Amino acid sequence: MVKIMDRSHQFLVIGTGALGLATAQALLQQGAAVTVLERGFVGREASWAGGGILSPLCPWDYSDEVSRLALRGMAMFGDLAESLHLATGIDPEYQRGGMLVLPPFDVRAALAWCAARGMRVEQRGDALFLPDVAQVRNPRLLQALRAQVVQLGGRIVEQCEVKQVVAQAGRVKHLATTLGNFSADSYIVTAGAWSKVLLGEHALHADIKPVRGQMLLFKFDAPPLPHVVLRNDLYLIPRRDGHLLVGSTREDVGFDTSTTDEARAMLLQRATALLPALQNRNVIKHWAGLRPASPGNIPTIGRHPHLQNLYLNSGHFRYGVTMSPASAEMLVNEIDGAPQMLDVTPYRWT
Ligand SMILES: Cc1cc2nc3c(=O)[nH]c(=O)nc-3n(C[C@H](O)[C@H](O)[C@H](O)COP(=O)(O)OP(=O)(O)OC[C@H]3O[C@@H](n4cnc5c(N)ncnc54)[C@H](O)[C@@H]3O)c2cc1C
Questions:
Q1: What is the pLDDT of residues 204-225, one digit of tens each?
Q2: Spatial separation of the C-alpha atoms in residues 283 and 280, rounded to whole Å
Q3: Which of 54, 122, 194, 338: disulfide with 129, CB 3.0–4.6 Å?
Q4: Angle, CA 172 vertex, CA 168 and CA 173 arms, to 5°
């Protein structure tokens, strides 16, 4: 156990996605000294590319391990977004507009899941409406988190790629980076889809790999929908200012972030079937991001089994934004030896 309540304990966090920034923020709030290293620029990978729906898509399709962490994140997000807005002046545009889930899905399983978790649900014809599902606007959330990390005294070093985690005698000794060696008391890997590659031999059984998702963006004068709409894997996310996001694909293509004409045509065709107003609209942006995929969508959150000052907070696959505050809370509680809100066993690094 490490006491992090004083600034003499120094942390190096690797990666500035939602997980890296949320972890840095939580450590700084406990009084630690934190430096975050980023290969490129802050928050430009999966956490930027995502849709910002704060819920698993069909939550009843997932294990308890996914549900528990996602529900804890969902419960924390409203206050988090408000406090970020107040502290930084940057509004992450948290809004609880709900999500309409269209068939096909298992109605009985869905209703049972909602009843067991106390999640409100309304039956609308053969669809289900989940009024408590919220969304955030990812780039704004990341800007706000970045601003708060800096306000709290954190240091962010961009264009600094970690090349190797160098260990000696059961501890990490330093990080070899493109800007030279960095050392600290403790090291936290939050490098998303790159976490396993970065860790090399130290990854052990942490099984994290990239899965590409492509998104399309449209612009209307006013939101064309009052809430998120989901059918199978296809979702439409209306933003306050009339932007509409359409996602997404799930592609096993390694570390390739290019977009494809096939995905664009498929997303457009399926989205237009749900929202005919898209028929003559131009796609104003098309992008791809790499989700940090893990078996069962269960992230690894915790200490390395052999290297006592190395931690991992990664592998959140499809729900890293949703889970980020809960996941950061869990890791910081573990580091600090504080009581946990959830059973940490399923997320351990074994
Ligand atoms: C299309 C799409 C839609 C999504 N929709 C949602 C959604 O609606 N809701 C939801 O909750 N989740 C969603 N997700 C999933 C979510 O975006 C991810 O789970 C989450 O962003 C992962 O965050 P991360 O911080 O682990 O990774 P990232 O955001 O990828 O951050 C990792 C960071 O580490 C840096 N890095 C990597 N290697 C190194 C190195 N060697 N040295 C230094 N820095 C390094 C990278 O440059 C990057 O900045 C979506 C993802 C995609 C792609």
A1: 989 999 999 999 999 999 999 9
A2: 10
A3: 122
A4: 70
Q: How does pLDDT run across 216-257, given as a tens digit for each residue?
A: 999 999 999 999 999 999 999 999 999 999 999 999 999 999
- Domain residues for the domain of 9 are 1-96+134-208+294-350
Give the residues across from 177 on adjacent strands: 162, 180
Can you read off the two tokens belonging to residue 79?
């206050």
Query: Beta-strand (E) ranges in the chain?
Result: 10-14, 33-37, 53-54, 99-102, 122-124, 127-130, 134-135, 155-157, 162-168, 171-177, 180-182, 186-189, 209-219, 228-231, 234-238, 243-247, 285-293, 300-303, 310-314
Identify whether the C-beta of residue 236 lies closer than 8 Å to the C-beta of residue 274.
Answer: yes
The total number of structural domains that make up the chain: 1
Average pLDDT over residues 191-211: 97
User: Distance between CA 320 and CA 47 in Å, rounded?
Assistant: 8
Please tell me the residue having the least CA distance from ligand 1 atom 26. Answer: 192
The answer to whether 303 and 6 have CB atoms below 8 angstroms apart is no
43 CA to centre of ligand 1 in angstroms: 8
Q: Identify residue 134 by its one-letter amino acid code.
A: A
DSSP H helices, the chain, are 18-29, 46-49, 64-88, 107-117, 138-151, 195-199, 261-274, 320-336
Residue 37 Cβ inside 6 Å of ligand 1? The answer reads: yes
CA of 47 to the centre of ligand 1 (A): 4
Which ranges of 217-277 would DSSP assign to H, the alpha helix? 261-274
Which tokens hold the place of 2? Answer: 């490490």
Pair of tokens at residue 312:
């991992």
Q: Are 310 and 303 in contact (CB under 8 A)?
A: yes
Query: Does residue 91's CB lie within 6 angstroms of at least one atom of ligand 1?
Result: no
- Our mutation pick for probing the ligand 1 site, out of 35, 38, 156, 286, counting the most ligand atoms within 8 A of Cβ, is 38
Residue 18 covered by a domain? yes
pTM recorded for the entire structure = 0.97
